Amino acid sequence: MLSAIDVNKFNTLIEINTLINSDYVNIESLLTKILESATRLTEGEASSILLVNKENKKLYFEIALGSKGPDVKKFTVNMGEGIAGWVALHNTSIIVNDVENDKRHRIDISKQIGYASKTMLAVPMRLKDECVGVIEIINKKNGKNFTQDDLEWLEIFANQAALALHSAQTFEKAIGEIQLLQDKINTDQGYHTLIAKSPAVLEKLEIVSRVAKTDSSVLILGESGVGKELFAEQIHLQSARSKQPFVRVNCAALPEGLLESELFGHVKGAFTNAIQTRKGRFELADGGTIFLDEIGDLPLQLQAKLLRVIQQKTFEKVGSDISVTVNVRILAATNKDIESLVEKGEFRSDLYYRLNVLPLYIPPLRQRPEDIPELAQFFLKKFNRETKKQFTGFSDGAMETMLSYSWPGNIRELENCIERACVIGKDSQIQSEDLLLKHAGPVIHESNSDRNLKTALNLFKSRYIKKILEENDWNQTETAKALDIQRTYLSRLIKEFSILNPKEK
User: Fold this and answer.
1) Cβ distance 460 to 425 under 8 Å?
2) What fold is seen in the domain 199-363?
3) DSSP assignment, residue 392?
């Protein structure tokens, strides 16, 4: 039995229970707090929480505290292997006050990280009597041995950790189901989820919120696969027309002979196979918004008719001389250099100026690396559901590979890459080799303590800025234009990342 209640320990338990039962908090932060409290109150030098993966029967270091914590997290333990593995397999707590002579001890891990384990407490985290993880405390301070009292207190903390884990998993499952339902509703209505984390995209979304309140035409520019259609959806959804139709037309997907009928409709007998009068996309979009994707591929003949719709809100169906009036907002997008098309006479200048009232340029994925982890996690959840797999995330190497790759196909390529990785991946996490990115840049091999997202993003930015500088012969003005940033900001980044011009060495 526990000795007389220690007020400090009792207050700590109340504090943690309050957190567990409060509004949802980050599970990693909560488990870390539980482990920090357990370590302090049992007077340990280092500690870990290992979680059990039911599918491959391995234990993964979820939280690791102490001087070697970051190094420990790269290891995995098989069920029954090591002291933690033994505890998980037997679902039994244990005190080991002579670790070096215990046959279950993974001495190879201690040697590799350069940290000797002398005494250890290890207890199972149980949910409905099933072991879902292990808490271990290593080396009691001042050379002392762990006691039965320490073990019983640690078991209480283990119960708290299991409860916190269960609450978080239940919450995440509910959020996932809500998100799945929301995605289904959006998909049924033709809308997509827009993921944004980078300042570059958040700035565009702020512009979208202002643009949406008007009825002016918007020309959305950007490379193929950057998500131009998603920004068009956001403009519609945030506008006063959101309850009305949002009609999409891919101008490059239909032959010229069919495109006019598709846009403006036709009357019965207008051409062969016109067996009945048919409404076009503009008429279907009346009161709402029409999105003309790949507008740069619109034939010149139809450009004149489109210009009239913008100016007069009227058109005639194919085979008819009766004018049809519509109230439609026009959003257009292209991945082409439309100004160049205007100069060549391949796109009407008057139509370009009418469409380009509110231009919106969407930067490519390589210029917004902060979005890569968010998008990757979103697609991982999506394909986890579709492939019926349970990948928990991405290894450090996989994330570094994605951050160092230039993504010429942008978000569309990233989505395909994650889908492929989910199909072929075998581990609990997506590994770098699962991505099959043959032309990815070299993987960053920093020390484990430096392998955080901010460091990886800065390394990516440094590499990418240097690459664009080299392409522009180290001309900072031209490089700033290519990066779509101010020259003064580029100069500051060059200094911040210590990028050296080899000509000046």
Assistant:
1) no
2) Rossmann fold (3.40.50)
3) -
Q: What is the pTM of this model?
A: 0.57
Q: Give the torsion sign (CA, 423, 429, 431, 437).
A: positive
Residue range(s) of every CATH 1.10.8.60 domain in the chain: 366-504
Q: Is residue 66 predicted with pLDDT exceeding 60?
A: yes
| CATH number given to 366-504 | 1.10.8.60
Asked if 34 and 162 count as a contact pair (C-beta separation under 8 A), the reply is no
Handedness of CA 141, 63, 435, 484 (dihedral sign): negative
Whose tokens are 């002291």? That residue is 83
- Banded model confidence at residue 490, pLDDT cuts 50, 70, 90: confident
pLDDT in tens, 268-303: 877 766 677 888 899 999 999 999 999 999 999 899
Q: How far is 394 from 216, CA to CA, in rounded Å?
A: 42
CA distance 470 to 467: 5
The amino acid at residue 443 is V
The CATH code of domain 7-174 reads: 3.30.450.40
Cα-flanking dihedrals φ and ψ of residue 60, to 5°? -115, 140
Structure tokens at 112: 């590799």
pLDDT at site 175: 54
Contact present, 465 and 483 (Cβ < 8 Å): yes
